[in-house]
Design a protein that fits this description.
Blueprint (H helix, E strand, L loop, with lengths): L5 H10 L1 E10 L8 H17 L3 E6 L6 E7 L3 H9 L2 H4 L3 E10 L18
């Protein structure tokens, strides 16, 4: 692991900024007959929000845990809640959500076309 000094940590904390994290869960209507169609339109809306720069990271959850996705919004928690309240999957009860203020650091990003790699994290 890289050697990270206190000075570096303080510098990075000073450069961080606030975002909003959305945690999506499967809602009470997740299994309704038209649920897949509603989720498709939810995804279309997410792509639109990404194109506008409002939804900066979107990660659908790929397991059967009951979680549906994670999103990072470049918006206040209040504005993010308003955005989410307009989502067709939220309105239909197919998904539910929580919004949390989070901090991001300069350079944070998902690697492009990343393959699963075993990394030594000791």
């Amino acid at each position: 692991m890289a050697d990270i000094t206190d000075e570096y940590m303080n510098e990075m904390l000073g450069k961080s900024r606030m975002y909003s994290a959305v945690l999506l869960k499967r809602g009470p209507e997740y299994s309704r007959p038209d649920g897949r169609t509603i989720i498709w339109e939810h995804g279309r809306r997410n792509f639109s929000l990404r194109a506008e720069g409002v939804l900066v990271v979107v990660c659908p959850v790929a397991d059967d845990s009951g979680w549906a996705g994670i999103g990072i919004f470049d918006a206040t928690p209040e504005d993010t809640a308003r955005i989410m309240d307009g989502d067709p999957a939220i309105q239909a009860g197919v998904l539910s959500y929580e919004v949390h203020p989070v901090r991001g650091f300069p350079g944070d990003r998902l690697p492009p076309q990343a393959d699963w790699v075993e990394r030594d994290v000791d």
